[in-house]
DNA sequence: TGCCTTGATGAATCAGTTC
DNA sequence: CGAACTGATTCATCAAGGC
């Protein structure tokens, strides 16, 4: 890991072509982003200032003072100023993101509506908004509102037409008891030993995010080896989790104290082994098998009779890898769709063959071919 | 109840001074709002078009077509057009809201960021954003995103300096395990017998909201006798719940078919008695319970009669999750203690309901809810 | 009547590759 | 770049029908 000044980034030889990875760049967020090469990062996680607009001190019922976020970097004169700032750094993010990259932004009701609207105005395409439900949120001390028990994250691609973004659907599903991962996530806030403390024993950063949250974000929307950028690096949670999960990181941070804390923290992290990092994939990633391979390999013979699960439709296998049924013919998919009067049909699961008096989908034959391919290293 | 045309509202003698209550106004939302007297309603619930921007058809894995929202009223040419529409109706809402009134707006990621930003631009002051977590959301069929399992509501007052808005903190707390009500709420989507059907058996309105959701909104932020306005009345859930809870309603709706459905629906609603509607304002109760979930989930209905194991004491369930018995009222624990002259009482084991001629502790219902919550990952 | 199976459906910004 | 082709993909709940 290294820490580079903005000037160093700008004169780094590779700065126009390749990304500067596993590095914290010291400097202003927008200027630093503009110094990075375009289309060089796979994903961005951004935890911008929340624009909290606290009017005065807040006291608990026992009269102790709440240690609120009142740092310089969270002071904006107006929504207009906050919007201009937001637009500037989001635009700079667009430039450094690869075409199939995605961005995550976290916020609360104070700022997330401005962020979301500006994302849309800048032609980002929202894929999901995700709710982080806190198991242990701060209470509402005055009893004048509901307890503010969540924060919101927006996940977006570069546009409606942007294709090919990473979403590890099967991994998320497997991790969630084999049902789809929902848009509401439950995690504790960052506390205890995970919370970075300064030498004075006080928290090193006021809004340190839990590693579990970043883990799910990175596991869901990046691949091992990807570059994850965090333009508001703070205590370096993004870098720490990225390193552990075998991704590269680039952090941008203005304040030296935060950089020092993040650097020490990340140095202690060990990257997990390859076996632990392999991304669970579904059928999607499996090699493509054309239907006629089943015929070529002798698993199905020309003239064989196929039918749907209920026996309502049937067809004959032709030597060229198409099916025919009465007047109609076509690929396994086309013919299945035609016979059902549908636009589309997955022929692999629709068509069945008879084996020992039992109907089995031809997908079972494809399975055999794939197993054989895997075994022979094809 | 009555249905008035816009012209009738405009020539109604009292239209400049008092509100036109328990009425559906037929007409365009903004024009109708402008015809209502200023500062005449205590709360607004708005469920505006979401601006879904659907590109093409979506099919389930079984090739059936998803019946998406493709109504005229959800079509906007651009974000700019949607923003102008949003600004117009929100501005019109400002005028009719009493100084201490509050507004709720529900939306999804398609529109809620625009709504939130415009609310702030118009000087509304966000009090909370609330997440409606759906127990049974529609799946993501293509496996390219997280399952979109929530919608977002913004609750706002007329400005940072606006004082005196209604928030029934103690009632919310007593109903929620005697801990503060959080900003994430769990409810099923509206389905089954609650869902209004047309004569053809198809849903009367594509986006009917569940009554439990409106119940919590109205119980938390209005008082009995208040006027609740809904500028996008649709199937009339706001009116139905308002009437049941002893609040007045004003609905605005453009389409006659929706008005007809709402009118018939509301006519069937009975207002709960005074005892059930009294808002809990008492002091904290000591033990922890989660009683109103039984009401939200339909296991217990407001007005239901509970008694102790020996039948010596009995009480009536109120809509806000408290019990009343003669002069006395309170959470299930406080009331049980009071009636027995004790300091404390476990209401869960003390109170019983009748099931098939047998007395069973309400703890049995809590068990059902807990099993369900565990199953749904709540 | 009751249990089980089958089918329907809900605010949805829901594909990637080759020709 | 557009059209054509291939083929991957669902959870909870309720209603209806079979047995």
UniProtKB/TrEMBL annotation, chains A, B:
Name of this chain's protein: Methyltransferase
Family to which the UniProt record says this protein belongs: Belongs to the N(4)/N(6)-methyltransferase family.
Gene Ontology CC: cytoplasm
InterPro entries: DNA_methylase_N4/N6, DNA_methylase_N6_adenine_CS, RAMA, RM_Methyltransferase, SAM-dependent_MTases_sf
Catalysed reaction, written as an equation: a 2'-deoxyadenosine in DNA + S-adenosyl-L-methionine = an N(6)-methyl-2'-deoxyadenosine in DNA + S-adenosyl-L-homocysteine + H(+)
Residues covered by the DNA methylase N-4/N-6 domain: 41-263
RAMA domain sequence ranges: 278-374
Gene Ontology MF terms: DNA binding; N-methyltransferase activity; site-specific DNA-methyltransferase (adenine-specific) activity
GO biological process: DNA replication; methylation
Organism placement in taxonomy: Bacteria, Pseudomonadati, Pseudomonadota, Alphaproteobacteria, Hyphomicrobiales
EC number, UniProt record: 2.1.1.-
Pfam families: N6_N4_Mtase, RAMA
Keywords: DNA replication, DNA-binding, Methyltransferase, S-adenosyl-L-methionine, Transferase
PROSITE patterns according to UniProt: N6_MTASE
């Amino acid at each position: 890991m290294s820490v580079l000044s903005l000037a160093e980034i700008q004169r780094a030889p590779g700065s126009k072509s390749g990304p500067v990875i596993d590095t914290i760049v010291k400097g202003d967020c927008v200027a630093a982003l503009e110094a990075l090469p375009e289309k060089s990062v796979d994903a961005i996680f951004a935890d911008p200032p929340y624009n909290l607009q606290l009017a005065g001190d807040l006291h608990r019922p026992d009269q102790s003072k709440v240690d609120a976020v009142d740092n310089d970097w969270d002071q904006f004169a107006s929504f207009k100023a906050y919007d201009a700032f937001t637009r500037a750094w989001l635009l700079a993010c667009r430039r450094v993101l690869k075409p199939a990259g995605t961005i995550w932004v976290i916020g609360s009701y104070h700022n997330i509506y401005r962020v979301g609207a500006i994302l849309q105005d800048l032609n980002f395409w929202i894929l999901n908004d995700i709710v982080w439900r806190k198991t242990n949120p701060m209470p509402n001390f005055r009893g004048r509102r509901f307890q503010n028990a969540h924060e919101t994250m927006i996940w977006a691609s570069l546009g409606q037409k942007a294709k090919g973004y990473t979403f590890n659907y099967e991994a998320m599903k497997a991790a969630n008891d084999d049902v789809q991962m929902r848009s509401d996530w439950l995690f504790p806030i960052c506390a205890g030993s995970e919370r970075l403390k300064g030498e004075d024993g006080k928290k090193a950063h006021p809004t340190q995010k839990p590693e579990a949250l970043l883990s799910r974000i990175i596991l869901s929307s990046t691949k091992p080896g990807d570059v994850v950028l965090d333009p508001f690096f703070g205590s370096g949670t993004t870098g720490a989790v990225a390193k552990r999960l075998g991704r590269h990181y680039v952090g941008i941070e203005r304040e030296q104290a935060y950089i020092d804390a993040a650097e020490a923290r990340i140095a202690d992290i060990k990257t997990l082994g390859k076996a632990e990092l392999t991304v669970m994939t579904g059928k999607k990633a499996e090699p493509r098998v054309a239907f006629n391979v089943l015929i070529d390999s002798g698993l199905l013979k020309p003239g064989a009779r196929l039918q749907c699960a209920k026996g309502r439709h049937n067809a004959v296998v032709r030597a060229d890898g198409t099916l025919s049924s009465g007047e109609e013919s076509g690929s396994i998919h086309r013919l299945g769709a035609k016979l059902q009067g549908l636009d589309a049909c997955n022929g692999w699961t629709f068509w069945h063959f008879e084996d020992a008096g039992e109907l089995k989908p031809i997908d079972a034959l494809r399975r055999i071919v794939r197993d054989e391919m895997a075994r022979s290293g094809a």
